[in-house]
Design a protein that fits this description.
The chain is an all-alpha fold and 160 residues long. The protein has a single domain, classed as FlgN-like (Methane Monooxygenase Hydroxylase, Chain G, domain 1, Up-down Bundle), CATH 1.20.58. Helix content is 78%, strand content 0%. It contains four helices and no strands. α1 runs antiparallel to α2, α1 runs parallel beside α4 and α3 packs antiparallel against α4. It is elongated, with a radius of gyration of 27 Å.
């Protein structure tokens, strides 16, 4: 149980790191700083790798606990597991469970805001592309005698 509490606290710490990173991403998205966004995405990948490792450890611990306490524990939620835990760990698991729920909820809220910012940026990009593509279609044709057999090279390909 000590190992489980420790891993869960580690997960809370990693999720808090993700929250801080998501807040920084929000500022970067508003500021339209692509290079900084790329840097933050790389940091996020490293944190996610850490979260995945902790999750693997948590699953191993649950497997070990289910062998000790019976197989039913593997199907328990964290809250149910805290209720079934021996007394010294019951309070710790309840606290970590509550913290984990709060952190995940906060992260979801920030990520929804970031998704909205990204959608808005994509709409602007699509509008800009369609405007440029539209202006490409409004070509003024030269008179017949100035006809050239060379194809016109374009700077922007609207298919991109």
């Amino acid at each position: 149980m000590e190992a489980l509490v420790s891993v869960l606290k580690g997960q809370v710490k990693e999720y808090r790191s993700l929250i801080e990173l998501a807040k920084r991403k929000q500022e970067v998205l508003i500021g339209n700083d692509i290079r900084e966004l790329d840097k933050l995405n790389k940091e996020e990948q490293n944190i996610i790798i850490g979260v995945a490792k902790l999750e693997s450890k948590r699953l191993e611990i649950i497997k070990d606990l289910s062998e000790v306490f019976g197989s039913a524990i593997s199907s328990y939620t964290l809250k149910e597991m805290a209720e079934q835990a021996p007394e010294p760990f019951q309070g710790q698991l309840n606290n970590v469970c509550q913290e984990l729920n709060e952190v995940v909820e906060d992260l979801n809220i920030i990520n929804q805001g970031n998704s909205s910012l990204i959608e808005q940026a994509l709409k602007i990009v699509n509008f800009t592309i369609s405007t440029i593509a539209q202006s490409e279609r409004e070509v003024i044709y030269p008179e017949k005698e100035a006809k050239s057999t060379k194809p016109i090279s374009r700077i922007f390909d609207s298919k991109a």
